[in-house]
């Protein structure tokens, strides 16, 4: 029996770009046909992009997807193509159409609709009722969509219908635990059904999620036959042997084992690049404080966009140390970005003078500290307006969790690359980035003295973060249990953390939901991100 030749399109298909996505499929069809493929496979909701959210409530959007699908079907001479689209027939289904011989031959509807984490499928779609199996080149191929393979029954139904190979199209967002979980699920499905699995995943950043690709081939006995590189746009060639129920990758780039920091760094870079480019910004700017968060954000931005598209701004006051000034300037010069120093002390003093009558009789406190941050926010937003560059917010997940951030100050910005990155991970990423540079014989991207110094907001004399917060090792361990683990305060304290510290941290997390609701979007990279994934009430008596 002849092998079935597959071309798996691990590419980015942006949300809402229906005509452009269809044109990309058309180009991939030509390439797949020229390479001798029998079937081109495209990701989940290829034409609409994923997740299209409330675009799915617009009849004109659904009609545009349907029109482009019909046009693509007419171009399938000599090739079959599996293309994802929202299928509207009174109800709307998350669908994948098998196009062949100039027509839509079969349509598979997603059966298992996820409604957890970042997923809202049940808001928009109705579930499919059966697993579709089609014959291609004499091979019985089951057509599944994303969550269908995470549940046993859709794959089992396809196997009962005679499937030898399962082709699974996905828009599965990345997080720091996802790839190992995916592989375990696919191995289990293959062993249960005896079917080989070709798993194709979307790649690219979309608002608060980032897709890694990381497509996989799994043989019928559960052996992982091939892994595609993460965060790479590729047309992946594969061959299925129905007699052995095995898949063979053809000239796949090596997916070398990488340190967790390397993959996380790549996810953040991809998130920045796609958010900036898809939204049409000519570049970005950020406040460079001389601290580790802004230093890492600058390195990420340069790696994502190139130095010519990045502007850094240092805004000192009387409390800004020489270490901060020297570290910021040195990093900006080393990375080759446009750099400005704007002394905000006069502006800060004018604010204080204007407020003096209303502040009379009250001792200086956090209001004056936050006023410095808000002065910087106003300056940065003015620069963003004037030059059209997107302002990056530089705060991390630890700060956002406990509210150690100033509304309309350091929280200003249109995108927050580190929003889902704990402070301890910020340090690991900074050290990894410098080690990667050293391995290439390059200078460190982040000044080592910035990494080693005690973290400080520098809003008063001799201030450090630990004046207000527990040590970050302890804080992040508590936060991970409280946020990702959803553990109670008593459960966290039972692990050996001081009960009063746990109560204080939990109280800060719950009390600062109002700040997080006003924060910029940022890429989800953990299993429980603030934003669309973790939605707590602002007004709540639960403590």
TrEMBL record:
Keyword Nucleotide-binding carried by entry: yes
Keyword terms of this UniProt record: ATP-binding, Ligase, NAD, Nucleotide-binding
Reaction it catalyzes: deamido-NAD(+) + L-glutamine + ATP + H2O = L-glutamate + AMP + diphosphate + NAD(+) + H(+)
Protein's GO biological process: NAD+ biosynthetic process
GO MF term list: ATP binding; glutaminase activity; NAD+ synthase (glutamine-hydrolyzing) activity; NAD+ synthase activity
Assigned EC number: 6.3.5.1
Enzyme class, first EC level, given as a word: ligase
Pfam family, one: NAD_synthase
Family: In the C-terminal section; belongs to the NAD synthetase family. Belongs to the NAD synthetase family.
Name of the protein: Glutamine-dependent NAD(+) synthetase
Lineage: Bacteria, Pseudomonadati, Pseudomonadota, Gammaproteobacteria, Lysobacterales
